[in-house]
């Protein structure tokens, strides 16, 4: 039975990746950071019904010794480094923490693997935010980076450290440059989930308006359940490499509002208001990925349409609020 070690197991992608790997017969071990609200952590794993099937071990991305100890103890075949301060807007409020967790944390993980179990295959969760102020209409593995937030700068450092450890030490280290991916398990502060939660509240009479920031920005949104398959496929290749994972379609925030509200029979323009508080100091206006390499080499392609994903998210949020109201 192969062993996978996942940092960020309690996040959106960690939960779906755990589900995928358990289904493939892996022993799944995850890094759990100590929290005073232990009963709340693991909510996503619980939602998928797999909390009792994974092993959660205590450590922190900022504590190298804990990571070395865990890698030495568990000797994983595959390491998925998903842990991060992952919210772009928060990275301007906590730039140093973001650097420490999202950037240096990846180096801690690379070091833990190199020191304690160098044969493990390594996946780094890189981000389309690294393209930032885009240098090509469609972004692929050859597109120059131009990060626009402390989060993106930290991710770019982690990306290059992954490439460097591959080239310096011959590690099987791959970097997945994933475009935005969403699901009912997406953090509530991200725009898609904020919108679907808003739709649910308005539909159930709990609210009448939804405050958003820049409605003109566009993103290439896929479903997290599809994207974790690409992570796994990267680590099954004979050689490590970097891959863009995207749908190839870009959609504005306003259009996502239209899709999500109309699924619930609502007109988004009756409810959405803009609020300067949600504007960013520097914006990523457009992202649109070219997933040709992932399709050709990994045989991967996005399976879920934006419309189906938005519908799934709206339904899940309505169900959640109904339970709370009962
Ligand atoms: P989430 O924000 O849902 O999950 C982040 C995870 O990191 C959580 O498990 C969190 O733990 C953990 N974490 C944060 N800080 C620490 C720490 N100091 N020590 C240990 N664990 C920590 O992210 P996603 O699942 O959406 O994304 C997974 C990865 O992919 C992230 O690195 C993200 O930046 C990257 N990414 C995501 C994209 C997306 O669209 N979702 C796009 C491209 C890249 P806790 O539950 O305790 O908070
Ligand atoms: P990101 O691409 O990782 O920053 O993902 P987000 O979901 O946080 O943001 C996607 C886009 O939505 C960005 O261009 C934001 O400026 C825009 N946006 C507009 N209004 C909001 C809002 O209220 N919350 C968030 N999170 N983003 C918003």
Protein architecture, described:
- By secondary structure, the chain is an alpha/beta fold.
- The protein has two domains: 203 residues, NAD(P)-binding Rossmann-like Domain (Rossmann fold); 92 residues, UDP-galactose 4-epimerase, domain 1 (Alpha-Beta Complex), CATH 3.90.25.10.
- Helix content is 43%, strand content 15%.
- The chain contains eleven helices and 13 strands.
- The chain has a seven-stranded parallel sheet, sandwiched between helices. Strands 7-10 form a two-stranded parallel ribbon.
- Strand 1, helix 1 and strand 2 form a beta-alpha-beta unit.
- Helix 3 runs parallel beside helix 5.
- The longest helix has 22 residues.
- The protein is globular.
- The N and C termini lie far apart (43 Å).
- The model has no long low-confidence stretch (mean pLDDT 98).
- The structure holds NADPH dihydro-nicotinamide-adenine-dinucleotide phosphate and guanosine-5'-diphosphate.
Write the layout of secondary structure elements.
Layout: E1 3-7, H1 12-23, E2 27-32, H2 43-47, E3 55-58, H3 64-74, E4 78-81, H4 88-93, H5 95-116, E5 121-127, H6 150-169, E6 173-178, E7 181-182, H7 191-203, E8 210-212, E9 218-219, E10 222-223, H8 224-236, E11 242-245, E12 251-252, H9 253-263, E13 272-274, H10 292-298, H11 306-325
Parallel strand pairs: 1-2, 1-4, 2-3, 4-5, 5-6, 6-11, 7-10, 8-13
Antiparallel strand pairs: 9-12
Helix pairs in contact: 1-8, 3-5, 5-6, 7-9, 7-11, 9-11
Bound molecules: NADPH dihydro-nicotinamide-adenine-dinucleotide phosphate and guanosine-5'-diphosphate.
């Amino acid at each position: 039975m192969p062993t996978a070690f996942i940092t960020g197991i309690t996040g959106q992608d960690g939960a779906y990746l755990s589900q995928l790997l358990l289904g493939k017969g892996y022993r799944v071990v995850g890094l759990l950071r100590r929290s005073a609200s232990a009963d709340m952590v693991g909510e996503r794993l619980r939602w998928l019904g797999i909390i009792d099937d994974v092993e959660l071990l205590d450590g922190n991305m900022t504590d190298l010794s804990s990571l070395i100890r865990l890698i030495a103890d568990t000797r994983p075949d595959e390491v998925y480094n998903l842990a991060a301060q992952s919210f772009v807007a928060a990275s301007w409020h906590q730039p140093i923490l973001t650097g420490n967790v999202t950037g240096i944390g990846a180096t801690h993980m690379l070091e833990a693997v190199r020191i304690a179990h160098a044969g493990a295959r390594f996946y780094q969760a890189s981000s389309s935010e690294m393209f930032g102020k885009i240098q090509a209409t469609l972004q692929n593995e050859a597109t120059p980076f131009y990060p626009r937030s402390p989060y993106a700068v930290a991710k770019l450092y982690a990306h290059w450290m992954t490439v460097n450890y591959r080239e310096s030490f011959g590690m099987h280290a791959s970097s997945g440059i994933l475009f935005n991916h969403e699901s009912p398990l997406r953090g509530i502060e991200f725009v898609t989930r904020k919108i679907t939660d808003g739709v649910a509240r308005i539909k159930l009479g709990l609210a009448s308006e939804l405050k958003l920031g820049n409605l003109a920005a566009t993103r290439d949104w896929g479903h997290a359940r599809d994207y974790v398959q690409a992570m796994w496929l990267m680590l099954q290749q004979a050689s490590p490499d970097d891959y863009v994972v995207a749908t190839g379609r870009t959609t504005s925030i306003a259009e996502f509002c239209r899709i999500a509200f109309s699924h619930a029979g609502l007109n988004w323009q009756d409810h959405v208001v803009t609020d300067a508080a949600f504007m960013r100091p520097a914006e990523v206006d457009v992202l649109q990925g070219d997933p040709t390499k992932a399709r050709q080499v990994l045989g991967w392609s996005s399976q879920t349409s934006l419309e189906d994903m938005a519908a799934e998210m709206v339904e899940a949020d309505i169900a959640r609020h109904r339970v709370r109201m009962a």
